[in-house]
Amino acid sequence: MKKIIYFATFLFCILTISSCTNDEDEEKIDVLTPTDNAQTEQMILEPTV
């Protein structure tokens, strides 16, 4: 029984690792510098009474 669980875990790990690729053919990499603002601005709407 342990062999079946180990084999299933091994297959799951191989499947997970093989799906982590970057096949987007994009050479543009967005590099964040310390002066960049990573937060998005949100509009706060106050309820009208």
Description of the molecule:
The chain is mostly helical. It has one helix at residues 2-18. It starts with a helix and ends in a 31-residue tail after the last helix.
**Describe the biggest sheet?**
none
CA-based shape: flat
Number of helices: 1
N-to-C SSE series?
H
How would you sum up this structure in a few lines?
Helices cover 35% and strands 0% of the residues. With 49 residues, the protein is mostly helical.
Summarize the helices and strands and which ones pair or pack.
Elements: H1 2-18
Q: Characteristics of this structure?
A:
49 residues, mainly alpha, 1 helix
